[in-house]
Amino acid sequence: MFSGGAGSAYVSYYMVQAYGKENCKLFFTNTLWEDEDNLRFMDEVAEYVGLEITEILDGRTPEEVFFDMKYLGNSRLAKCSEELKVRQTLIYLEELRDVEKVEPILYFGIAPHEKHRRDDSHIKRLKNIVEENSSDMNIRKAAGIRSFYAHFPLEPIETRFPLIETLREDIDAKGIIKYEWGIELPRMYTAAVEAAKLEDNILAQKLVAKGINGFSHANCGGRCVRGGFQHYATLYAIWPDQYKEQEDMENRFREHFKKDVSILKKNGGPYTLKQYREDMELHGVEKYLFQPDDTIPCVCSFS
Questions:
Q1: What residue spans of the chain are helical by DSSP H?
Q2: 147: nearest Cα among 299, 300, 301, 5
Q3: Is the residue at 245 inside a domain?
Q4: Residues 20 and 117 in one domain
Q5: Which residues form the domain of 95?
Q6: 218 close to 189: Cβ distance less than 8 angstroms
Q7: pLDDT per position in the chain (303 positions), as tens?
Q8: Three-state DSSP class for residue 265
Q9: CB within 8 Å of 259: residues ≥ 6 apart
Q10: Total structural domains in the chain?
């Protein structure tokens, strides 16, 4: 299950070393919202491990899915992931069974720990707040994926998580890829660092000072609808143009269907990206940058 993430890139290398290229496939479901540097990264990793990428497209963007389904993806339910990633994966797996007469095993790059943890992770653990990129949360993700692929397909599909189950140490996948393989990581992982250096962005500098070098995952060019308040504050601070694209998309949906809906929720009701931007401009973006999100990312953010 190949993506623009460092974890899946390292697992692809691990698989080839363990089982041989002839028994491995790099499977990528493209949402058409991917950041262009993700695609560069994936091509370089594929060349390094010696496999071609099997790319599957539904053909729609997440916005087109929202319009077709008449449902705006949000921090709790993302039809875009269901249609563009999960459904395409299941179709492909059944084709492998029918056409190539093989029984597929899915490998995911979810890691037990992440090197880019926030500095306050120990406080979150003491307060029993599960951090998005913590060991606990990532093991929960793995359990959810395993349960899904055991029950949803026509026949159960085995899932494996080498970074959690097989390797005995916390692999610094990002360091290995950058310094041993010589491949630059996707810019989404270092977007705050680049903005701090190249644009003299004070907010980006504060993110870096807190140990936040970029986005926590590299999917959908920062426009993931499962992102919460902190994610979108980070997007506004680093890439305001992408934030505006998402704000405009949300507004187009609201106007077309005449529905008071939004990606974010506040006090149990709709809270649009336009409202959020205006609040950040009024009170200062920094107020929202370091508040932990309570949302759980969807399948497409498994890196």
A1: 6-19, 36-49, 62-69, 79-81, 87-95, 121-126, 135-151, 162-165, 173-175, 191-198, 202-209, 229-238, 240-257, 273-283, 286-289
A2: 299
A3: yes
A4: yes
A5: 6-184
A6: yes
A7: 898 888 899 999 999 999 999 999 999 999 999 999 999 999 999 999 999 999 999 999 999 999 999 999 987 788 998 899 989 999 999 999 999 999 999 999 887 654 333 234 433 444 444 454 455 555 666 667 777 787 777 788 899 888 888 775 667 888 999 999 999 999 999 999 999 987 778 999 999 998 889 987 777 899 999 888 999 999 999 999 999 999 999 999 999 999 999 999 998 899 999 999 999 999 999 888 887 665 444 444 433
A8: strand
A9: 72, 253
A10: 2
The answer to whether residue 297 is domain-embedded is no
pTM score: 0.82
> What's the rounded Cα separation, in Å, for the pair 77 and 32?
19
Angle at 249 between CA 245 and CA 253, to 5 degrees: 170
Q: Find the radius of gyration of the CA atoms of the chain.
A: 19
Of 157, 184, 211, the one marking the end of a domain is 184
**Within a domain: 301:** no
Same domain for 140 and 266: no
Same domain, 254 and 175: no
Task: Tell me whether residue 75 is in a domain.
Answer: yes
Q: Are residues 31 and 112 in the same domain?
A: yes
**CATH number, domain with residue 82:** 3.40.50
* Residue 50 shares a structural domain with residue 154: yes
